[in-house]
User: Fold this.
Amino acid sequence: MSHHAGLVLDFGGVLTTPLLPAVLNFEQREGLAEGACITALYLDEEGTRRTHELERGTITQDQWNEAAAARLGVAPHNLMGRIFADLRPEPLMINAAAAARRAGIKVGILSNSVGLAPWNLYDGYDLDALYDAVVISEHHGMRKPDPEIFLAALKLLELPAEQCVFVDDTADYLPAAADLGFATLHAKAPRQTISQLEDLLGVSLTEEV
Assistant:
């Protein structure tokens, strides 16, 4: 079996703890009905459009906060930061990515942005130092699953898609990567994802760091 030489990881929900529990905790803190955020921001056509604009960098996080707050009936101040206040680093996946790099695998990050100010999802993760390529959607004016954003990551890694694995916790983004030639993994639980990656990459990812 031919093993892959590159690994492209989503950020939120892969290198962090899952997104949904953080959102549900926010709803509880704000006295919102369970599922209010998903309904207003991701299932509603206008909410979805604004989120996609944020991901592409055509509106600011503050503009998104104002519009989303109005739909939810909450205060707009640092709304994105409040929604994801409970997100934490996922050490198993972060350590696995570091182990892959030590084994000679090129590792990149490909993330749909939620804006970088006033709240920065990526603060404290030292992405530029710890990964071989970092593609944040708003810097490129496009978002997953646009094929071009996957190509941007491949260009930085200097690898063809056929030599790379793409990992995301959002299943909807996997087909576009697969169409380009990536092997794809739907990240559901860190230990399962790491086990699958070890098979695809042909290296151990559970070494002590």
Observations:
- The chain has a mean pLDDT of 95.
- The longest helix spans residues 19-30.
- Residues 19-83 form one domain.
